[in-house]
């Protein structure tokens, strides 16, 4: 949109995770409404929409005894099994976590969900009222004012933006409403936000930090993979054994898949020396107070998070000793996050904000070896002096010396049965290798005696029974005495064994 040659008052309506309005008139007067944060304000924001969805769902459940369709969407989005799971999550959730649920409300609205419609109608009215109030402080009623819609909640949801515009025109008939897209309007937004930030200095530091993070990510977001492949990665080649996969009888297809998977351990055997180097590097890091990080996208990222999550219950390790970082964050654990793996800048930021140091080990997992998110993370980890490891299944990579990881583990598994589907053999190999890394590292840390888990964290009945049997095996006492020793030792197996020997 081209601005009129005659200056008119302008009001920018921002609805993102939070919300606020900024206004400016030709005389140079400016007004800010909102921006008080989610506890005091943020009317019509993504946060408020998400929070209202949670509250409305549990309210309808209490009233009718039936969990509403909108509530079903929220449970699916959060990968929860029942409404009670929301209680603990909501208490610990960040503003962004709750704002993320707004997308489910918009999707439900498209399906004519009544609760979602009520929530978004109320949000549109709140934004319009705030904008009209801002306008009244800048001009007399009837004056033409340009209202600019900004923020992801408005820009990414045109139907909602239209509803806000409709509400605005009822409150201010001379309104001109446009989405944030022209450079002149962007300059207005930057100008008004800058003035507002200086008037509310307590929030400016936080907003500046967020802006800085965004700028740092933007600098490298389009950075391609650092490594190049001399030829097509084996993970992308076609497997000659499965050319007729769509025609094979089911029994033959099963036999084919199992035979391909059965060949994985033999191919990993050729990498024993590199695997040993990785385990020794992890053990050294643990001994000097360092941590192990897995970084990946898609299946690779999920397997890293899985292995990391199993360490505390299996070996009684602190949750931060082994960590998984997945491109796209928590949501990517159960659904694809478009474009996340291509964001090298996000990989760098993930390493930065986990506080990686030279004591740590970072394992980048990328089946083809070319995932930008992983390379961004490895590059930043190397810059910080950490031990870096690339786990891939492409032996044809060409990696510049300046960014070459400390250790490269690149077994050749050959093409997948389903071309390019690296959740198959590549996924199997990744799971096997991560199991080896953490299991043998924990053995070297003294968390295993014979083949028994002596640092088990018995958090349920099955594991408590296992703990009792482990104490029996190590001391020769009966079940009741072993159980008593564990009770007296706070269910720490090592302490219970010491009591009995």
CATH fold label of the largest domain: Rossmann fold
- What characterizes the major β-sheet? 5 strands, mixed
State the CATH architecture of the largest domain. Answer: 3-Layer(aba) Sandwich
Share of β-strand residues: 5-15%
- The DSSP helix count reads 20
What name goes with the CATH superfamily of the largest domain?
A: Glucose-6-phosphate isomerase like protein, domain 1
Q: How would you explain this protein's 3D organization?
A:
The chain has 501 residues and is an alpha/beta fold. The protein has 3 domains: 1-199, ATPase, nucleotide binding domain (Nucleotidyltransferase, domain 5); 228-444, Rossmann fold (3-Layer(aba) Sandwich); 448-500, Helicase, Ruva Protein, domain 3 (Orthogonal Bundle), CATH 1.10.8. The protein has helices at 46-64, 69-78, 85-92, 95-99, 102-110, 114-136, 152-155, 158-171, 183-199, 201-220, 250-262, 264-269, 272-287, 298-315, 344-353, 372-383, 425-444, 461-475, 479-488, 493-500, and strands at 10-15, 19-24, 30-34, 145-150, 175-179, 228-229, 292-296, 322-326, 361-365, 387-391, 397-398, 407-409, 448-449, 452-453. Helix 16 (372-383) links the parallel strand 9 (361-365) and strand 10 (387-391). The longest helix is centred in the first third of the chain and has 23 residues, at 114-136. It is globular. The model is unreliable at 182-188 and 190-222 (pLDDT under 50).
